[in-house]
Write a structure and sequence with these properties.
heterodimer, A: 501 residues, mainly alpha, two-stranded antiparallel ribbon, globular, B: 696 residues, two-stranded antiparallel sheet, 26 helices
Chain lengths: 501, 696
């Protein structure tokens, strides 16, 4: 019995204290401490992933007694491993990016740095815990822990009407979480356990525990709750303002690492426990996802504020994730979870790049005031370009394979057996990618091309603390775009375990 | 020797990746290394064609998708890679001198080699997915290279400044033109992707591999029969054709290509002659026979191949009319490319419609070869002319024949080939297409093709006349006064285009010798198809052929004569106003403007409306309402005020008492609401624990 994964949870917790204490002497450089501390969970997860390889089921689990609720388990398997690695890598990189950015935002106040980085560490703890959790109550607790620090981070260092915006964010997501909790409680009550594995076991051996109607209702409630998190159309009102007005490092974490966890939870909880009920409702979800994809992209098309554009783009990308899941095929599920990764790297790149530009432009976010920056900031421009290509699902970026898989899932569902509705939905889904190309290329052109503006004469390339995260994420983007097999093999295997091969 | 076919496309890509590295040493190292890598690809292509057996050379890639990375060596791919690689190499040599003083050269060489590598990749790939990598890769490179001068200086724009149609400006900066090319071709790519999805989803076992897809045909439960059962076979084929329509700039997606002239001329040459637009023709050539057999099984050949043929024929005519009034020399050539590719598409369509598949098929591919050669020559020469006269407008050139004799000869030779004058290669291949249409009883297509011959001869003569004949324009005389004498190109530029022009003549002279063997060689492409394609016997030279030769040559002569009388014998004056028919043609039949109106403006307006009335009108109102209620509530309870909160935090921080800082957070009003809602969650959990777990 090793303590690998509990370490991945405890270290950020201890890290919150460490960063809090060290900020008085280190000030903004506390970010480096946070980054190094974040490498601990990353390594723990890597080791756990390696342990999992040697088991026949490819699962590595740590369980701790958690009487009377059940067991407090932490699990690395085919599904959670890629997600966890993405989160911990992003957390480590964005901590570095926070150094120059929060320096400008906070100035010279050690107390504020202490608060920022300890909240940041707690935030990362929440995300990792959510993904590691094996128990429904445990999941819920981590899900809430994820919400609290992010709320404070927006409320304290956000832009604009940050109090109102952070409250909007909080209320929406929290209501979503509560509805999810109702589903969890009902499931736990009826299935006689809140450990996910036992729930699945109990329901397999005795399907009559929960009637079909109740299953549909529970799936409906859980999905409603999680759809708030992944900002599906109608439940998205919190997202644009929260993403655009949060301090940019936090926008980066929100948009890349956190939001998609809702999609992960749909696979991990809803689809695993209630596959057939999910399948029954999936045509509705597919249509809903489609609306989100188009709506988010259309909104992105008309923004001049670059962060708002990215916010709506994230909404659209979350539609892709649900789209793949709604196909209920192994390719669709694998594609969606891969999409989580490629969206995470792409949005990470783009928000960091935007942060780099904002730093130089004194916080300017209006694209029409930029232009011709490609020559001034070649590394930032190249990285932003790669990120946009991934967003567009362009080959040689990870975005291609993720989108390819999830759309392929849609078409497989549509043709086997044949469903006219599903064919139309799948076709429209692919069509939506044209809008992504439209807004991405337009934004790139406005920011980086065209005549160099007078104000941009003084613009220089960003410091290494910004370019390093950009370069690392770009390498991951292209690396997985060329050889996605390590990710795809795991995710497809997991998808098959849900839907059958 | 299985590494050789892989080297063909990996060498230029390696060259691209190494370019920034070489740039660290010296500009010249970078330039010559780039050219060397493209030469390596060409040499590898030729050696492969002669020494490597036709086969599928694979390595594992993504087993979950039943996907191997593979290079398919067969007559079609070998035929194309040799054309692509060698012409690309000549363009690279030309670039050495042509691009010398431009900015962003590292970027230029990077994308040029990447462009070539991706084109070779898409030709060599043995499956649809890997092909799509190259396919999108060329799209990206064209975007980057068309927008090379991304600072959008006025001299790099395309179109006449101030010109507009239906309120849409008709002059575009490079960064816009690049984006236009990317998005427009991507629309076609989306259709192509949908077709790939459908084919993969219905194939059993699921595969992207051409050979496996072909071998599944004719069996029960094949992808073709499944798609046919759903009524999706013809739609799938047509959607697949959407990709080539976009890439090869065919109607209705032809509008990006004329504006792609904003890039450096060497880039235009690469796009038009060797890469990009040929990709579409290749893909129809690759999948055409497979679709033919698939459709034949269910008697649905005509809708698909009829569409291909008619799209091609209509585009050929459409673009030729536009070339007849263009003012920029590169635009004449651009329209001409669209038109010539239309011929190729028409040939490939006719292949499926007529009894003799091979006749149309080989005609289309041979036209691709001869066009690649003469169009590369024309573009490279035009590049020098533009460079020397410092203008892209033909009416600012004039009388250049004296100053640049060899360039004018080169353009004349290549131009004659474009016109289809015997014995140039363009004559034979264009005639093969027309003859295939006629022999296949597609008389209407034949007539359109013939009318286009007349137009082609006319616009080519017009271009040559305005540029090289008559007296030098005011612009040229001004340059002389400034001491900038218009002179002949340097050897590194001259040799590539002159060599290509001479090759165009030589290939024409030798055509009767090699056309038969080459056609037989290309037939080898069908070897993996079962049942084998219906191949009509080659009827040999007949009296019909002679009549067809005479008809097309005669019309070319008429076009030439009209052009000669108007533009060689009389000085050219650019019309001040574009009215009537000329205006209609000048504004590209208003298709471009209508697209902007409908798609760009329409979409923007719709999105704006959605944003204003739905997003801001409903959703944005909803959440502040909630938030405001919460804030009102907490303000009323006297605890929330963001300035109070901030001051509190700062005071605490200053006092150095960090822990109470956190505590204060929890006592402040913002959190009050949070605590209430969070409490609901806790209470729910408690209820659960007490009543459910406790009761157990």
């Amino acid at each position: 019995m090793s303590f690998l994964l509990i370490g991945a949870i405890v270290v950020p917790l201890v890290g919150a204290a460490v960063t809090y204490l060290s900020a008085s002497s280190l000030k903004e450089k506390t970010g480096y401490v946070a980054s190094i501390l974040s490498l601990v969970p990353l390594s723990a997860i890597l080791i756990a992933g390696n342990e999992a390889r040697s088991t026949p089921t490819r699962v590595y689990t740590e369980t701790y007694s958690w009487s009377p609720i059940g067991t407090f388990g932490l699990r690395v398997d085919n599904l959670s491993l890629p997600i966890l690695l993405t989160i911990s890598l992003l957390v480590a990189l964005i901590a570095i990016f926070s150094v120059p950015y929060m320096r400008q935002r906070i100035g010279d106040n050690p107390g504020r740095y202490a608060l920022y980085y300890s909240l940041y560490m707690l935030y990362s703890l929440g995300m990792l815990g959510t993904v590691l959790a094996t128990n429904l109550i445990e999941f819920y607790l981590f899900f809430e822990i994820m919400l609290v620090p992010s709320f404070f981070l927006i409320a304290e260092w956000g832009y604009g009407d940050r109090t109102k915006i952070s409250l909007t964010y909080f209320i929406w997501t929290h209501i979503g979480a509560l509805v999810l909790l109702i589903g969890i409680v009902v499931t736990g009550y009826l299935a006689g356990s809140t450990d996910m594995d036992s729930v699945v076991n109990n329901l397999t051996t005795n399907p009559s525990l929960i009637s079909t109607t109740v299953r549909l209702a529970v799936v409906g409630a859980m999905c409603f709750g999680l759809f708030v998190k992944i900002a599906q159309f109608g439940l998205h009102a919190w997202l644009p303002s929260a993403y655009s007005e949060a301090p940019t490092p936090i926008s980066a974490v929100l948009a890349s690492a956190m939001t998609g966890i809702g999609g992960y939870a749909i696979v991990r909880i809803v689809m695993t426990i209630y596959p057939s009920a999910f399948l029954t409702l999936s045509p509705i979800f597919a249509g809903w996802a489609l609306v989100t994809m188009f709506y988010g992209a259309a909104m992105a098309l008309v923004q001049d504020d670059i962060k708002k554009l990215l916010a709506y783009s994230s909404m659209s990308q979350m539609g892709y994730i649900l789209f793949g899941l709604a196909s209920f095929t192994s390719f669709g599920i694998a594609g969606s979870m891969f999409q989580y990764i490629s969206n995470a790297t792409a949005k990470g790149i783009l928000f960091i790049a935007v942060g780099a530009i904002m730093l130089q432009f004194g916080g300017e976010r209006s694209m029409s005031k930029m232009g011709g920056l490609a020559g001034r900031m070649p590394i930032t421009a190249t990285a932003a370009f790669i990120g946009s290509l991934a967003l567009m699902g362009f080959p040689t970026t990870n975005g291609f394979f993720s989108e390819f898989l999830l759309f392929q899932g849609g078409f497989i569902r549509a043709t086997n057996p044949f469903s006219g509705y599903r064919v139309i939905v799948a076709v429209l889904g692919v069509v939506a990618t044209a809008l992504t190309a439209g807004y991405s290329l337009m934004a790139l052109r406005k920011i980086f091309f065209g005549p160099a503006r007078v104000e941009s004469a003084a613009i220089k390339e960003a410091p290494w603390s910004i370019t390093l995260p950009l370069i690392v994420l770009s390498i991951v983007t292209i690396g997985l775009g060329l050889y996605p097999t390590p990710v795809i093999s795991r995710l497809v295997a997991f998808g098959q375990s849900i839907v059958g091969s | 020797m299985t590494i050789l076919p892989w080297l063909i496309w990996t060498l230029p890509i390696a060259g691209a990746i190494l370019t920034p590295l070489f740039a660290k040493f010296h500009g010249l190292v970078r330039d010559y290394a780039a050219v060397a890598f493209s030469l390596g690809a060409a040499v590898a292509a030729t050696i492969t064609a002669f020494t490597v057996a036709s086969s599928d050379y694979q390595i594992p890639w993504v087993p979950q998708l039943n996907l191997n990375a593979g290079v398919l060596v067969d007559p079609l791919s070998m035929f194309l890679v040799n054309i692509v690689a060698w012409i690309s190499f000549l363009i690279m040599v030309y670039s050495l001198q042509y691009m010398k003083k431009e900015f962003g050269l590292t970027r230029y060489w990077f994308f040029m080699n990447l462009f070539i590598g991706n084109m070779l990749l898409l030709v060599l790939a043995d499956n649809l997915l890997m092909m799509f990598f190259g396919w999108e890769g060329v799209g990206l490179c064209s975007y980057a290279l068309i927008g090379h001068f991304y600072h959008d200086e006025p001299e790099h724009w395309v179109g006449t400044p101030g010109d507009s149609a239906l309120g849409v400006p008709q002059a575009y900066p490079p960064s816009h033109a690049g984006m236009k090319a990317f998005i427009m071709t991507r629309i076609g790519d989306i259709a192509l992707l949908i077709a790939i999805f459908l084919i993969f989803a219905t194939s059993t076992p699921r595969t992207f591999n051409y050979v496996e897809l072909a071998s599944q045909l004719g069996k029960t439960g094949s992808w073709a029969s499944t798609l046919a059962r759903f009524g999706l076979l013809v739609p799938t084929a047509l959607l697949f054709f959407g990709g080539p329509v976009g890439k090869s700039a065919q109607f209705p997606l032809q509008e990006w290509l004329p504006d792609a002239m904003a890039g450096p001329t060497s880039v235009s040459a690469l796009i038009h002659a060797a890469t990009m637009v040929k990709a579409g023709v290749f893909l129809v050539g690759r999948m055409g026979p497979i679709f033919f057999l698939a459709l034949l099984e269910f008697n649905q050949v005509t809708p698909f191949f009829g569409t291909v043929a008619w799209v091609g024929a209509f585009t050929a005519f459409l673009a030729a009319t536009q070339a007849s009034v263009a003012r920029e020399i590169k635009k004449v050539l651009a329209y001409s490319t669209v038109s010539q590719i239309g011929y190729m598409m028409m040939a490939l369509g006719v292949a499926g419609l007529s009894a003799n598949f091979l006749a149309g098929y080989s005609a289309g591919l041979l036209q691709l070869m001869s066009h690649a050669i003469f169009k590369a020559s024309l573009f490279l020469a035009a590049g020098w002319v533009i460079h020397a006269t410092e203008s892209r407008f033909m009416d600012q050139m004039g009388g250049l024949a004296k100053a640049m004799r060899l360039t004018s000869v080169s353009m004349l030779l290549a131009g004659l080939s474009l016109m289809g004058i015997p014995p140039f290669s363009g004559f034979w291949t264009k005639d093969a297409i027309l003859s295939a249409a006629f022999q296949g009883s597609e008389y209407l297509l034949y007539a359109i093709g013939l009318a286009t011959v007349l137009l082609t001869a006319f616009y080519t003569t017009r271009m040559l006349g305005i540029t090289f004949a008559g007296k030098p324009s005011a612009n040229v005389e001004d340059l002389e006064k400034q001491g900038k004498h218009v002179h002949e190109a340097g050897l590194l530029m001259l040799v590539p285009y002159l060599a290509l022009a001479i090759a165009s003549l030589g290939l024409g002279l030798l055509y009767p010798l090699y056309s038969g063997p080459l056609t037989n060689y290309l037939m080898g492409t069908f070897q993996y198809l079962t049942p084998t394609l219906l191949l009509g016997a080659n009827p040999g030279f007949s009296i019909t052929d002679a009549v067809l030769f005479a008809a097309s040559t005669g019309l070319a002569a008429v076009g030439f004569a009209i052009g000669y009388l108007r533009y060689f014998r009389r000085p050219y004056q650019a019309p001040s106003q574009m009215k009537g028919l000329v205006g209609f043609l000048w504004h590209r039949w208003y298709i471009d403007a209508i697209y902007y109106r409908i798609f760009v403006e329409g979409l923007t307006k719709m999105s704006r409306g959605l944003y204003r009335y739905v997003e801001q009108g409903i959703w944005d109102k909803l959440s502040p309402t909630i938030a405001r209620d919460v804030i009102d509530y907490t303000t009323a309870s006297g605890s929330l005020d963001s300035s109070v909160v901030d001051r509190g935090v700062n005071d605490v921080a200053r006092a150095g008492s960090r822990f109470s800082n956190l505590l204060r957070r929890f006592q402040s009003g913002v959190t009050e609401q949070y605590v209430i809602t969070f409490a609901i969650g806790i209470i729910l959990l408690l209820i659960y624990m007490i009543f459910v777990i406790g009761a157990r």
